[in-house]
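Exercise 7. Given the encoded structure of a 420-residue chain, write a plausible sequence.
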């Protein structure tokens, strides 16, 4: 151990487990790439004001969880706590929405930072894969994104996840509901902080996890009863499209995002094997966000799925991923001359596209064969002085145990053929 440890609330991804993270990122992004989403990468930090406006001044993310810093030049920056605001900022900056090509469909993958109380499934550094479809109001787009996330989880072998779905209304009907809710909430017995929340972000109060708060909310006005006809029709269309695609979801009218620019469709993916950190991903429409950060009206929808929690969900369900074996051939040289000869073979194999590794450091046969076994390689190549004198190497099929002498000059071709 060194003098240092990973900072509180963080952990390192190390082999072999790190392969699972790569596989999860790949599985989540593959359906997006196949559906017209282009890859976008933005900086790990942004102007703090982007998040204050783009995530919301009254959210926990902005008030409590952001890592902020002042640069030597005096800029106020924040490590990104989420992806949507940055992606929209970048799309606007590059004028992607003006190419006459709406919606702009983008996907991303990366590290996010939140100063949270660390616990299982809740870290200060975590990773997400996300997708945004910018600039089009079309229920098919909302359905597409939910279907693609469902497809991604299923392709990983996950089964015990549920999709929660709700509509938050729009700028016509939400304000009416908001006021009705505020009137109701102001009469309840609530602490100071929650009272403040009633004024800034009343829908969030519905999301309060405390039992004594929930008890008082039984008779709260329901958003469902306030949805305007356009929102109702839109939501019914999304539901019908999901049903037609065979995607099972649950209507959850408690599912809220309190900010004004979150509109209509909202959803969350929860996994029942994860205890209290059960949300593996979430998203929805954010028709008002572009204007909040100084852009034109661009109705958009997106989601972000947590990679860390998805890996935990796989473990909770006992899913073993079918991870690709990374090494196909493992070379074990016995002696200096063999070392040079076999390293040349390994280089040749690699150039031919065969994954090959090597017993470094002049190790004995026994230890080197152990490493060969651990590597999962299908074939080993062993050569000593006598083999080289005969111009051959010993090729061993680790599955059948069969061993054959192959001419040194032919071994790359032989292995490329055998491995297809
Ligand atoms: P929660 O309610 O659990 O705090 P959230 O609403 O803050 O989640 P989002 O901002 O919607 O989460 O982020 C999308 C996904 O990113 C979450 O569903 C989760 O899988 C993951 N995520 C969010 N915060 C963390 C974290 N601190 N550690 C690990 N994963 C996280
Ligand atoms: Mg959170």
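Solution.
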């Amino acid at each position: 151990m060194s003098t240092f440890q990973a900072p509180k609330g963080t952990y390192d991804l190390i082999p072999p487990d790190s392969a699972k993270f790569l596989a999860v990122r790949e599985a989540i992004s593959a359906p997006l790439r196949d559906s017209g989403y282009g890859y976008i990468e933005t900086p790990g930090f942004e102007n703090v004001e982007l998040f204050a406006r783009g995530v919301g001044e009254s959210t926990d993310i902005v008030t409590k969880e952001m890592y902020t810093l002042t640069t030597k030049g005096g800029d106020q920056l924040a490590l990104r706590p989420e992806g949507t605001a940055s992606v929209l900022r970048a799309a606007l900056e590059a004028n992607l929405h003006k190419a006459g090509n709406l919606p702009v469909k983008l996907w991303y993958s990366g590290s996010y930072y939140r100063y949270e109380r660390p616990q299982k499934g809740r870290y200060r550094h975590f990773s997400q894969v996300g997708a945004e479809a910018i600039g089009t109001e079309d229920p098919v787009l909302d359905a597409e994104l939910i279907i693609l996330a469902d497809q991604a989880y299923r392709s990983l072998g996950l089964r015990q996840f549920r999709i929660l779905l709700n509509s938050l209304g729009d700028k016509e009907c939400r304000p009416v509901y908001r006021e009705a809710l505020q009137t109701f909430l102001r009469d309840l017995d609530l602490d100071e902080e929650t009272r403040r929340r009633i004024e800034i972000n009343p829908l969030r109060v519905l999301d309060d996890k405390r039992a004594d708060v929930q008890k008082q909310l039984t008779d709260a006005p329901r958003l469902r009863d306030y949805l305007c006809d356009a929102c109702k029709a839109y939501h019914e269309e999304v539901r019908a499209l999901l049903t037609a695609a065979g995607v099972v979801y649950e209507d959850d009218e408690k599912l809220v995002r309190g900010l004004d620019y979150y509109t209509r469709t909202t959803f969350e993916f929860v996994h029942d094997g994860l205890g209290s950190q059960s949300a593996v991903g979430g998203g929805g429409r954010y028709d008002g966000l572009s204007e909040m950060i100084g852009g034109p009206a661009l109705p958009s929808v997106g989601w972000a799925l947590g990679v860390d929690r998805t890996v935990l969900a796989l473990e909770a369900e006992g899913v073993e991923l079918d991870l690709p074996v990374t090494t196909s051939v493992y070379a074990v040289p016995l002696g200096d001359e063999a070392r040079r000869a076999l390293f040349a073979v390994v280089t040749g194999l690699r150039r031919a596209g065969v994954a090959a590794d090597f017993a470094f450091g002049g190790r004995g046969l026994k230890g080197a064969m152990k490493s060969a076994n651990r590597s999962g390689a299908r074939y080993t190549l062993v050569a000593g002085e006598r083999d080289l004198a005969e111009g051959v190497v010993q090729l061993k099929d680790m599955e059948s145990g069969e061993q054959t002498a192959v001419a040194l000059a032919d071994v790359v071709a032989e292995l490329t053929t055998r491995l297809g």
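Remark. The chain has two domains: 18-173+227-317, 329-418. Students should compare their own answers with the one above.
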